[in-house]
Amino acid sequence: MSWLSTLMPAKLAHRIALTLGLLSLALAAAIWLYGQYALRPAIAQSEQQAARAQAEHTRDLFVEAAAALERQADSLANWDDAYLYATGADPQRLNAFLDSRTHNALGLDFLAVFDPRGDLMTTAEWGGKGVFRDELMLTRELDPATSFGRIFTQAVRQGKKVSGGVVRLARGPYYVSIAQIRPASRQGGPAGYLVTGVAADKLLLQTKGAYSATLARVVPITARDLPDQVLHWVGKREPASDELLIFRDDATTQTWNAIPSLDGKPALLLGSSQPRDMSRLASEKLAQIALIAVGGTLLLGLVAWGVVHALISRRLGALLQSVHGLTRPGQTALLETRGNDEVAFLTRAVNQLAHGKNTSIEALRQVEHQLDLVFAQSPSAMLLVRDGQLSDANAAATALLKAQHSATLVGKHLSDIVESSDATARRLLLLTQSRQLDGEIPPLLCRVHALDGSLISCDIKALRLPLPGKPTLYLFISPLAGEQAASGGAEHGGRLISISDRLAPRHA
């Protein structure tokens, strides 16, 4: 992906550090996303299930307490004392029993006795200071014209031995049991009805199961301190007894059950709260993980940059300088090799190239030194030509070309020395400009111009050296006239050829 390469830093250490940093950030983001969209919903679902289980447990405790209250009412209704009171045969026995229960040993808030026609005969109400008989307020609340009176009339018509449910009295919701007074030892129809009541919020406290008042609430459906969600739920529809409302805030998961009254209408709400400790802990841990991931990412990026810079970038930089040195004139310093990684292998290969270059340069220097000795001491005429121009001439060449000294010849073009009309001379001129031939060039028969204007026929042998820069030729000139000079030139020409054989076609 070229666009990604253009956005990445040029230096390898920076690129690797950035890549590792981005990958670490991606990993941290993946962990956070997993916690946010997988872990936290799973924890929330678990908390919701726990809240549902707690709400069902609270409801079961309420139902268990209500069943116990109905059994107690049925037990009291089966007493002979209640039968004798309802029939009027001996009311003193029940009065003595009720008046003696000043500390509410029965666990009831009130008790009432009705005759078979449904008329109220007596009431007993227990408070903090003892028992109160036939209180006017309770008598009014149990009047047949009230909601309790309608429920009582319906229960009498149904003819059940014991019936119970929530009744909304003026003082609040109560769980009321209506039992027929008909002992097993007596024959005939019911002699009356025994009504017992317990405040709904006290009913749960009478159970033997685990119950926490801080986690559960028993409130009437008309209470004003209900949460807005519960009020909306109640106002939207009439909740049935098996319906459950669950909603959450930042700290708790709340559940609400609706308990119907004896007439089937909702009268009571059982609220239960479950603290969201796991969600809060998960949120805190996710935040800590995110901070640790970000800090670890920055630290990892710095460590990666330092490691790559120390182990790779500096070594690659030195290796790059050495490679550049291979293309420059002069010797190249060898690099220190350490380790057995790819950079070390590449360093050894570059060192081999540098060693070969250095060896070639040293051999070339020795050849140049030998050529300089031959050039200076040779009795035969020799010219040094660079890029077609004379750079130097030995004494024999100066004498052959009738020059007073070699400086007179320096700077002249080779075309001014040889007769350019000769085909062999033109070939020689082309060879001086060529960069494709190295080593010894076969002898060419040319005519040479002396400075006095005379032409001298000569055999010219050329030796080209693989030197950097401009093409360099050593020309060995043997005049055709004079056998002694020719023989001397042949001898020294053999020396030149032997020197050229020692040269290898290397590039400096």
Automatic annotation (TrEMBL):
Residues 67-206 form the CHASE4 domain. InterPro entries: CHASE4, PAS-like_dom_sf. The keyword Ribonucleoprotein does not apply. Keywords: Membrane, Transmembrane, Transmembrane helix. Pfam families: CHASE4. The keyword tRNA-binding does not apply. The chain crosses the membrane at residues 286-312. This is CHASE4 domain-containing protein. It comes from Crenobacter intestini. The lineage of its organism: Bacteria, Pseudomonadati, Pseudomonadota, Betaproteobacteria, Neisseriales.
